[in-house]
Amino acid sequence: MHATSAATAGALTFLWLGMVLAISFLEAPLKFRAPGVTIPVGLGIGRLVFRALNLAEAALAVGVVVAVATGGPSAAVVTLTAVAAVVLAAQLGLVRPRLNRRSDAVLAGEDPAESRSRAHLYYVGLEIVKVLALLALGCLLQAV
């Protein structure tokens, strides 16, 4: 892979990885532990934060895909790039709409304990897969 493309893709990959780790695995669970943050307030904050994160992720994904595509990548780089992009697409297209419907219901007054949703578990599972793919991709790109 060309050095400039690899460096660009690597930088974007690690930026993407850092954002996901900071928001999904640090900010998201901690906000509900803050004093005075109710479930509706936490959900409202979370929706804003994740909307911004997902927009940034989409832009970073495009940048990584373009840098990888123009750099003469190895099969492993292409595979890891595809995994990260497909996982993000699944999160945005399949899981986020379910999470939004659930948070809409809670924000409308539904008791969150009445009906549990597995959508959060799917989102977290996909987030773990994406983190592992981004970490492996970034490391692979640094070795170029």
Description:
It comes from Streptomyces tagetis. The chain crosses the membrane at residues 6-27, 48-69, 75-95, 121-143. Keywords: Membrane, Transmembrane, Transmembrane helix. The chain is mainly α. The protein has one domain. It has helices at residues 3-31, 39-69, 75-107, 119-142. The radius of gyration is 17 Å and the shape is elongated. The model has no long low-confidence stretch (mean pLDDT 94).
Tally of helical segments: 4
User: What is the string of helix and strand elements?
Assistant: HHHH
State the low-pLDDT regions, or none. Answer: none
Class by alpha and beta content: mainly alpha
Average of pLDDT? 94
CA-CA gap between termini: 7 Å
Number of domains: 1
Largest sheet: none
Let me know the number of strands. Answer: 0
The helix content, as a percent range, equals over 70%
Content of β-strand: under 5%
- Our Rg estimate from Cα atoms comes to 17 Å
> Which overall shape is indicated by the principal axes computed on the Cα atoms?
elongated
Task: List its salient traits.
single chain, 144 residues, mainly alpha, 81% helix, transmembrane, Transmembrane protein, membrane, transmembrane helix
Q: How do the helices and strands line up, and which of them pair or pack?
A:
Layout: H1 3-31, H2 39-69, H3 75-107, H4 119-142
Helix pairs in contact: 1-2, 1-4, 2-3, 3-4
Keywords: Membrane, Transmembrane, Transmembrane helix
Protein name: Transmembrane protein
Transmembrane segments: 6-27, 48-69, 75-95, 121-143
